[in-house]
Structure formats: structure tokens, C-alpha cells
Amino acid sequence: MKPKIRVIAVGSLKEPYLRAGEMELLSRLSAFTDISVVECPEARYPAKLSEASRLAALEKEGESVLKALDKGERLVALAIEGKLSSSNDLRLLANAPVAFAIGGSLGLGANALSRANCKISFSRLTFPHQLMRLMLLDALLRALGKP
């Protein structure tokens, strides 16, 4: 039986080339795992963002991520402060029902981060959340199958 993996992502892929890349990677991954992507809405916030508005937006997005989580799934948060991970780490994480959470432009809400079973980081660099979706899928493909 194939392991079940879900990617819970805040926001949607707007650019056609990112959507095409995601579809290709999901197709390749389907040989090794039961994988799907769930998109949660990005919170709306003003251009001039106060700290209170930023925290409220993160809280709202975090709630959406938590509502999307299935019962029995482990939650793995992608966060810059998480443990730097390897392909082997991803392989071990993907052995049971797991959901990888990717925050939006502002990151991932503290409510989702505190609920996470673990936090992983791909780098100490910050990447656009839309690109991170493809990076995660590609890393999972390398960890579970063939690149």
C-alpha cells in the first residue's frame, strides 16, 4: 500500500508554469505515494501591514491549515526555524499518513506551528511559498522514487 501524503498550502499557484510543474511532479509521485495538494485561502491584509494585522492574518491562515488536516495525519510544518532536513528525513516522515504545511507570504501561523508534530527547513534562506510547493514535491520525488 502506498503511503498517503498531502501538501496543505496557503494560497494558490497563479503562474501557469508553476501549475504545470506541480502537475508533472504530482504525476510522477503518484507511482510511489497517494499524494494530493489542498489549497487554503490566503488572508487579505492591507499593503501597510501593522503587527496586529500580520498576526491576525497568520492566525486566520493557520486555522485554515488546521481545518484541512485529516484525523490521524501527522503535521509537518515547513518553517525556516525548523530542523534542516535531508532526503532520508523526508523518506522517514512519509512512511505514515502525513501532511506537509506550507504557509503563505507571511509564513505559517503560530497556531499551526504549535500543532505541528515536527518542523523542517529546506534552507535558512527564505523562498517564495509558491516555489516552495514545487521544491517540496521534487524533494519528495527524490526521497521516495527516482528524480
What's the CATH H-level superfamily name?
A: SPOUT methyltransferase, trefoil knot domain
Helix and strand sequence = EHEHEHEHEH
**Integer average pLDDT:** 93
Main sheet: which strands, in order across? 2-1-4-3-5
CATH topology: Alpha/beta knot
Q: Helical content, roughly?
A: 40-55%
Backbone shape = globular
Our estimate of the beta-strand percent is 15-25%
Can you give keywords for this protein?
single chain, 147 residues, alpha/beta, Alpha/beta knot, five-stranded parallel β-sheet, globular
How would you describe this structure to a colleague?
This protein has 147 residues and is an alpha/beta fold. It has a single domain, classed as Alpha/beta knot. The chain has helices at residues 16-29, 51-68, 87-93, 110-115, 129-144; strands at residues 4-10, 34-40, 74-84, 98-102, 118-121. The protein has a five-stranded parallel beta sheet. Strand 3 (74-84), helix 3 (87-93) and strand 4 form a beta-alpha-beta unit. Helix 1 packs parallel to helix 5 (129-144) and helix 3 packs across helix 5. The relative contact order is 0.24. The model has no long low-confidence stretch (mean pLDDT 93).
